[in-house]
Amino acid sequence: xxxxxxxxxxxxxxxxxxxxxxxxxxxxxxxxxxxxxxxxxxxxxxxxxxxxxxxxxxxxxxxxxxxxxxxxxxxxxxxxxxxxxxxxxxxxxxxxxxxxxxxxxxxxxxxxxxxxxxxxxxxxxxxxxxxxxxxxxxxxxxxxxxxxxxxxxxxxxxxxxxxxxxxxxxxxxxxxxxxxxxxxxxxxxxxxxxxxxxxxxxxxxxxxxxxxxxxxxxxxxxxxxxxxxxxxxxxxxxxxxxxxxxxxxxxxxxxxxxxxxxxxxxxxxxxxxxxxxxxxxxxxxxxxxxxxxxxxxxxxxxxxxxxxxxxxxxxxxxxxxxxxxxxxxxxxxxxxxxxxxxxxxxxxxxxxxxxxxxxxxxxxxxxxxxxxxxxxxxxxxxxxxxxxxxxxxxxxxxxxxxxxxxxxxxxxxxxxxxxxxxxxxxxxxxxxxxxxxxxxxxxxxxxxxxxxxxxxxxxxxxxxxxxxxxxxxxxxxxxxxxxxxxxxxxxxxxxxxxxxxxxxxxxxxx
Amino acid sequence: xxxxxxxxxxxxxxxxxxxxxxxxxxxxxxxxxxxxxxxxxxxxxxxxxxxxxxxxxxxxxxxxxxxxxxxxxxxxxxxxxxxxxxxxxxxxxxxxxxxxxxxxxxxxxxxxxxxxxxxxxxxxxxxxxxxxxxxxxxxxxxxxxxxxxxxxxxxxxxxxxxxxxxxxxxxxxxxxxxxxxxxxxxxxxxxxxxxxxxxxxxxxxxxxxxxxxxxxxxxxxxxxxxxxxxxxxxxxxxxxxxxxxxxxxxxxxxxxxxxxxxxxxxxxxxxxxxxxxxxxxxxxxxxxxxxxxxxxxxxxxxxxxxxxxxxxxxxxxxxxxxxxxxxxxxxxxxxxxxxxxxxxxxx
Lengths: 510, 347
Known about the structure:
The complex is a heterodimer of chains A (510) and B (347).
Chain A: E1 2-11, E2 14-24, E3 28-34, H1 40-48, E4 55-60, E5 63-64, H2 70-76, E6 78-81, H3 93-98, H4 112-126, H5 141-154, E7 159-163, H6 171-186, E8 190-194, H7 198-204, E9 207-212, E10 215-221, H8 227-235, E11 253-262, E12 266-274, E13 278-283, H9 289-297, E14 304-309, E15 312-313, H10 319-325, E16 327-330, H11 334-338, H12 345-350, H13 354-357, H14 365-378, H15 395-407, E17 413-417, H16 425-440, E18 444-448, H17 452-458, E19 461-466, E20 469-475, H18 481-489, H19 499-509
Parallel strand pairs in A: 3-8, 3-9, 6-7, 7-8, 13-18, 13-19, 16-17, 17-18
Antiparallel strand pairs in A: 1-2, 1-4, 4-5, 9-10, 11-12, 11-14, 14-15, 19-20
Helix pairs in contact in A: 4-5
Chain B: H1 20-29, H2 31-49, H3 56-64, H4 66-81, H5 89-105, H6 110-135, H7 139-158, H8 170-175, E1 179-180, E2 183-184, H9 185-203, H10 205-215, H11 217-223, H12 227-253, H13 264-274, H14 286-305, H15 310-342
Helix pairs in contact in B: 2-14, 4-9, 4-12, 4-13, 4-14, 5-6, 5-7, 5-12, 6-7, 6-12, 9-10, 10-11, 10-12, 13-14
């Protein structure tokens, strides 16, 4: 039903897509995989009508199409879930789902009751409990993603494109999403599924298309291929070990958190991070992991407890003081919290080190570029020029810019929230190698991650958070998927699903 | 946000509150109610200080004076919600008031003159809207420019001339002072307009789209909402309401000169902001803006009664605006905390 052939798209001097080819049959789920910057998101945006292709053919349901706006693609029967949720924070959850096509009652009034009912039944189908009347503001990324999915399903579209819908979802939520996806497929709809998780691709999809460097590489039936084969095609080279944390000399205590509490968010959180150590903060999405990190860094305030760095107390609620005392913080939601997307790469990286760069109070672009170049080079940020806006880069490269930005402050503690969220295998291992290397140089790292294999592979110690409390502290040797998941869900280890182990194996072999 | 539509009491039978505290909390968080309480307190204090405050001419003026501001605040609300601003409404009011007077003095019926005034206002709003929606220039810049341009055009047109009461239809002028059950007719019309705008914003698809556009313009674009049409529509509505305000101005004051309405655009924005319309779009209601308009006018009348020197009256209004915005920030951050705490996580 969807047929893209040799589609290309350039943004200025950057060729985001050289030759995109994608053929999706009705009644099938088609995976689209590739490294960051491979052109997947650009391809999706062409299908969605956000961008217009420069060349190539684009057919949908047998007709030649050229969408000039997202409204046109929607009318044609295409629903897209973007990588970053796009909700209206001031409007209610229901209004977000039905915006632009709210059910009308008499006299063309919006029928709010019917709308709420429909939203409730959508959420029931997805198996989640979200109050449809609450505003979208303040929802977790997982919940926002679920609302995006509900929105797309309610569109009753012939083709549903999902750009990494599972990145922020927990296991149960992913299972429900997959059940819905399969039922949509069985109704004869086409689905495109972009993911970096191979287990999901193999679990859900029928066919898979691999892209690399903006070009089509190959399409397989999922049954006829294997993870190593796909990985080889994705990266075009051998991938180094995925989680290469090497033993580093553990030094003195760098960060010490004692009895940290914030009403309704987390309670009585105490832990330490030593130099050269990577401490993993694990738990389900929404357990309070990110909130703890934000409080330590001073973005959010806390009610009681202390945070000390090298024995000196860190002022609460003051990120500047935290940066000055040597804490770096790479946040979870890079678009909102980590990156000034409209600013240039150099501006972004130099943003936190301005004070040292400025001469007589003046900051020159030349000085900025000079200071930034080594960091960008080290992280292999793919961008033509450092003064290009960060918004033109792929998600993985954006993440690299965020990391570069903070490494430039030469911190003694790095807090990194979901370091590889939405990042492909190749970059993932680069990020992991980088973290390991930094720990080896004596940096203390506090890593928050929803990906269990990542936590287990990288962390010297794992802290498990459940409903705002640290429920387990496990050494590398004790940290098994069962133990961590048991602590994260508040159950006993033998009741945890065995599927977790197979998932880990697949990710590690990747 | 404390001021989203969801905090207004709903008549949904399906809506159940966990306990009475929730209802009280909602009401306390409702900005409209808070401003209304302040307004009523002011009126109570003034009545206590001066017995005649709620009688005769004083009562009439208290209701009549806000009628023009109500119309402008309603139009401004629609524009502000889309994350824009219309600074040209005062000049639009001046131009349309003069045009209405001129139409009547050239022998047209008052109906034609009034409709002409509104249509002229809508046209001037469309000039703003086209440049902002299609030219992608910030509304602040465009409407600042058109505000000066419209006023300049009026100066050129009217010169030192003014339309006098004797040139206008007597029935039309009577409208300016006419009352029904002691309530001035102009105020009744203005309130009907406010109700219509409020109804539109809450129950029409395009009304909700205005909120969506202001709440997150990038998301609205990705969503495929007709942003340009909606923004253009908001500016045309604001212009038309400013045109109607011009008609009111002619009827009420009976004479129009080239400086008619100067400075009232800031009052309209102030009324909306005090009433809880977010200056960055996406939230607020026309009810709040209307109460804000009444509050502004009432303050003007009450402060002299309370013996506050003229000199400080402006400062009080300024303090009120800043206080309202600071309160907004405070409430918004509290509401955000509450929403984060309330979110349900499925294990």
